[in-house]
Amino acid sequence: MNYTILAIESSCDETSAAVCINGKIQSNIIATQTVHQKYGGVVPELASRAHQQHIIPVVNQAITEAKITKNDLHAVAFTRGPGLLGALLVGSSFAKALALGLKIPLIGVNHMQAHILAHFIDDPAPRFPFLCLTVSGGHTQIVKVNDYLDMQIIGETQDDAVGEAFDKTAKLLDLPYPGGPLIDKYAQSGDPKAFTFPNVDMPGLSFSFSGIKTSFMYFLRDKTLQRSDFIQNNLPDICASIQHTLIQILMKKLVKASKETGIQEIAIAGGVSANSGLRKQLTETGALYNWKVYIPKFEYCTDNAAMIAMAAHYKALAGQFASQDVTPLPRMDF
Ligand code: KG4
Ligand code: ZN
Fold first, then answer.
1. Could you read off the pLDDT of 154-206 as tens digits, one per residue?
2. Among 90, 99, 209, 223, which is disulfide-ready with 160 (CB 3.0 to 4.6 Å)?
3. CATH assignment of 125-296?
4. Domain 4-116+301-317 has CATH 3.30.420.40
5. Residue nearest to atom 14 of ligand 1 (CA)
6. Does ipTM exceed 0.85?
């Protein structure tokens, strides 16, 4: 059966809608919320309100760009979790109402699985089984992907996510939220070996990023007298060194995971996979270990509804529809 699916993403601070016809993305509209910048992080209540403002125009634009009408839809998909409860509620309530009005089924999608399935939007797609390092503002996971809907987390962070480590260190450097892309930008002209930041080596395939944040805080505290001068004079070197440290932690566990599983098809996904240093390092490490690496297009790294639509396509093919009493799950597991 050919499915025409409207997908909605509203888990954090992007309101997005996409249309997918038989597994091919026809439109992907993203409204990024800028209201959070002055608060240095996402404010959940403001995120919910901004989703409410954006959702109707974003959905209308996705449908228009796909050159269809609402009556052509076979299903409405939405991000069920993980994410902010209020933000998820806006997307899920809208999806439910629309599906009810059109008398079509609903599909609830796991946001983290969708980040991984973004690799199937365009060719070349990874072959099963593959490993995916999923790195975002809320998660850091190594996932063994056996099939489209059969995934297993084999390693994850025990505290902060790596995106959080990027954003929190950026905040200590007085950079605006989200700081990850700015660290990336300044790092490009800096020396990655200029400074070192101690971190704890976690057992197995687990990660920990809270220690780096603390050692970075002490590093800056020790420069208290001339703190702002020090930052101003060394910003590229500081950013390059922080980024290098974070990437080394990620790559070490990824190499270990590949050795332990014998899998050499390796992908990255999630907002931090937009990081130019991580993309370059993955290519280099991949060449060293003979991996086949898969790096998503920039537009599919950070939150978007095209990935939700792709996941929904595979769920529709597997007959995995949700009923009208489905609820959002802020801490949704695989
Ligand atoms: O996947 P995503 O859009 O949202 C979540 O599901 O969390 O990821 C957002 C995270 C933020 O922490 C942001 O700073 C980080 O991805 N990020 C980056 C870059 N672009 C986005 N981190 C480092 N370098 C980048 N270029
Ligand atoms: Zn995400």
1. 999 999 999 999 999 999 999 999 999 999 999 999 999 999 998 889 999 99
2. 209
3. 3.30.420.40
4. yes
5. 180
6. yes
